[in-house]
Amino acid sequence: MAEATRTKPILSVGQVAPRLAATSYAEALDELAAFAASQPGVVDGERFLREVSTLGAEDTMGVGAGAFISHLWSDAIDRIVVSVGIVERPLRVPAETGGETRGRLLVLVAAPPGESGAYLETVATLAALLREEGVLDAVLSAPDAQSIVDLPAVRNAPRVQKFSVIDVMQPASQRIYPEMPLREAARLMTRGEYTGLPVVNKRDEIVGMISEKDLIRDFLPGYLRVFESPSDLATREEADPSVRDVMSKAVLCLPVEASISEAASIIVNKNADPLPLTKDGKWVGLISRRSLIRKLLQF
Fold first, then answer.
1. pLDDT of amino acid 180
2. Is 47 found in the same domain as 31?
3. Most buried of 27, 115, 146, 185, CB within 10 angstroms?
4. Is 177 exposed, middle or buried (0-12, 13-18, 19+ CB in 10 A)?
5. Do the Cβ atoms of 242 and 178 come closer than 8 Å?
C-alpha cells in the first residue's frame, strides 16, 4: 500500500498565485498557466500555455467540495510544476460525467514524462491534503500566499510515497476472448467505459489487445456503406467478424511487481493506454492514464 512520509513542504510561496480575476473555468486555467509559466522548470512557455489550454474535463478532478486539480505530462518543462489559484466566486467546472460542479480553488500540476513517479505522488499528496477537514476553508480564507503555505496542515502535510501498481490498478473483470463476436466485445467495452481491453485465452493469458481504434476501424466503413445502400445492413450483420480478426497481437504489459513509475512511464512514452498487468503470466488488471489519476485522488 501507499505510504506517507514527512519531508519538505508540498507548497512554497512562489507556487501560490495572486487572487485570480477569472470568471470562467477556462479563464482561470489560462490565468493559472500564465502564472505557472514563470516558474523554474518551464523551458518552453508558449508550448506549455498551449498544452494547458487544451485540458478538459477528463484532465480535471474534483477533490473535496470546491477544489479541483488539473494535471498533465508535458515536454515543455523539465521538472514538477505546481500552481495554486483562488477565484473570488465559485466557478462552474466541467466534470467527466458531462455535468458541472462548482469551486473556488484550482490546482495545476504538470511534469515531464521522466518524472512520472514524483508527479503521481504530488497529485496524491495534494488531493489528500485538500480532503482534510477544514483545510480547504482555511486556504480560501487566508489573505495571501504566505499565509497559505504557513498553515500547519499545509506546512506539515505528509507526502504520499511508495506506490505499487496494485494500489491503483483496476482489477480484471470483463473477459474478451479471440472467438467472441466483435459486437459483443464492443458492448462489453462501452458498458465498462474501457478504451481498450486485453484479449485472453481460457487460461487468462494475454494473446492480444482490442481498442476503440480497432472498433472504429472495423465498424465505420460498414456503416458508411449502409447510408449509401441500406440493403448492406443485413449483409454486414451476417458477416460480423470475431475479435481475432481485428485485435492487435503485439501487446505491451507489465507484471504487478513493477513500480508505479514504470507503469506511468510506459503509459506516457509508449502510448500504451490502458496498460495490462499480469501475475504469473495471467492477466490481473489494468492501469490507464485516467484511472491512474482517479485512483490517486482517493488517497
1. 94
2. yes
3. 185
4. middle
5. yes
**pLDDT tens-digit map of 60-115:** 888 877 899 998 889 999 999 999 999 999 998 876 655 668 999 999 999 998 78
- Residue 26's nearest CA partner among 94, 86, 81, 85 is 94
Confidence (pLDDT) at 17? 95
Per the domain annotation, does 265 fall within a domain? yes
Write down the pLDDT at residue 170: 85
Task: Write down which residue in 146, 162, 178 finishes a domain.
Answer: 162
Residue 298 resides in a domain: no
Q: Are 282 and 262 in contact (CB under 8 A)?
A: no
Q: Of the candidates 198, 188, 212, 159, which has an alpha carbon nearest to the alpha carbon of residue 10?
A: 159
| pLDDT tens per residue across span 34-64 | 999 999 899 999 999 999 999 987 788 888 7
Instruction: Give the other-Cβ count within 10 Å of 168's Cβ.
Output: 23
- In the block, which residue shows the cell 477528463? 58
Write down the H helix ranges in 133-201: 135-141, 145-149, 152-155, 165-168, 182-191
Q: Give the burial string for 103-125 (b: 16+ CB within 10 Å, else e).
A: bbbbbbbbbbebbbbbbbbbbbb
- CB neighbour list of residue 103: distance below 8 Å, 6 or more residues apart: 62, 65, 66, 67, 68, 90, 91, 93
Are residues 188 and 92 both part of a single domain?
Answer: no
Distance in angstroms (rounded) separating the CA atoms of residues 157 and 6: 7
For the record, the C-alpha cell of 132 comes out as: 482534510
Beta-bridge mates of residue 82: 109
Dihedrals φ, ψ of 3, to 5°?
-115, 160
CB-CB contact of 186 with 214 (8 Å): no
Determine the 3-state secondary structure of 8 from DSSP.
coil
pTM of the full predicted structure?
A: 0.66
Domain for residue 293, yes or no? no
Question: Domain limits at 271?
Answer: 168-288
